[in-house]
Amino acid sequence: MKLVPRSRVTADDVLDGLTNAVLAVDDGLRVSTINSAFESLFGVSRRMAVGMPLIEAIPHFKPYEPRLRTALETATGFIERELDLQRNGDPPIPVDWTVTPFVIGGKKPGLLMEILPLQRHLRISRDEQLQAHFDASRELIRGLAHEIKNPLGGIRGAAQLLEREYPDESHREYTRVIIREADRLQNLVNRLLGPNRAPQKSLLNVHEVLEHVRRLVQAEAPEGISVLRDYDPSIPELTADREQLIQAVLNLLRNALQAVGEQGTILLRTRTRRQFTIGAKRHKLVVQIDIEDSGAGIEPAMLEKIFFPMVTTRAQGSGLGLPIAQYLIHSHGGLIECRSRPGCTIFTILLPLETL
User: How far apart are CA 159 and CA 155, in angstroms?
Assistant: First the structure.
């Protein structure tokens, strides 16, 4: 009889494959295990949390300790819908929470908790809606840009012919203005059309890219502005187009530089996120790049519009830097998000960490 090899898939492998956050506690309400989705949702480490009392490892559950002890004693589960789990100083995490008692091998009971983060579903819906609006507006702008491009070439050519026909200085002054303004509009149209090539991806160090951009911006920054770093050195190499990633980060960093003015700080921060969903696609590992500035902030009414072409909060702005950055990151399967309050604006780049 042919023996079938035993599967090497462990219980932790199964738990880590789930999109919902899962936590198990023993009869003393000490953490027995958590999965990757739980680590990402609550920002805790499995290595540090296992064995600790639940309310110390994850303070969000402290208000519910009596109810959990009752569930243990009576071996009765419960379900809470649209519950806000919160700890001091942090925004609430809206979840559906299911608690189920379990007993394995006659041992003392424990509790299995399954947590469905509602914000993830809301964010997926919002991301898809924003991307649909962005794609529609981009196609409209590209169509208009193509319509403008051809007449511009004719105007410039006619101005050059006039310059040859009337070479005297009095006429040349006017033809030069026409040529210069036609070139300026041509450059604007080219920027509206965006990158004309697919990403040329290769393995690269994300911190090398960030340091390259940081040096460029630091050279432009006034003396009163500090560009700080908070990097996670354990992040593996990223598969991306180096030039396009530099351009996207540069657009965001220059935007932060203009937001802080003559005095303030800009922080570059990197982290990884496990079991993270971008749009409707779930990724095992994602790199998160935060660009945080201490500027005045963005008005809530503008937050949903800043990634649309030609939308800007500055009188001298073109309204193209953020849409181009979003387009470049989106072409890598990623996304740029923004949250803002007075004194703190954070643009977050999310990119899948995948191999070639």
Answer: 6
89-125 burial string, b = 16+ CB within 10 Å, else e? Answer: eeeebbbbbbbbbeeeeeeeebbbbbbbbbebeebbe
pLDDT digits (tens, 9 = 90+) for 227-265: 899 999 999 999 998 888 998 999 899 989 988 988 889
Mind listing the pLDDT tens digit for each residue in 190-231? 666 666 567 788 899 999 999 999 988 888 888 888 889 999
At 229 the pLDDT is 92
Residues 297 and 162 in one domain: no
Tokens of 306: 């800043």
Residue 103 structural domain: 11-119
Residue after which a domain boundary falls, among 148, 166, 193: 193
**Whole-number pLDDT of residue 126:** 60
Q: What's the DSSP call for residue 306?
A: T
Average pLDDT over residues 57-62: 90
Query: What pTM did the predictor assign?
Result: 0.58
Q: Are residues 217 and 187 in the same domain?
A: no
DSSP string, 274-302: EEEEETTEEEEEEEEEEEEE-SS---HHH
How many domains in the chain? 3
- For β-strands 110-117 and 281-293, DSSP reports them as unpaired
Q: pLDDT tens digits, residue range 277-328?
A: 776 677 888 999 999 999 888 888 777 777 766 566 554 555 667 878 888 8
Same domain, 232 and 320: yes
User: What are the DSSP calls for 245-283, one per residue?
Assistant: HHHHHHHHHHHHHHHHTTSEEEEEEEEEEEEEEETTEEE
Beta bridge partners of 99: 78, 113
Domain match, 82 and 160 both: no
Nearest of 110, 44, 122, 54 to residue 82 by alpha carbon:
122
Record the tokens describing residue 1, joined without a space.
């009889």
Domain edge (last residue) among 164, 193, 222: 193
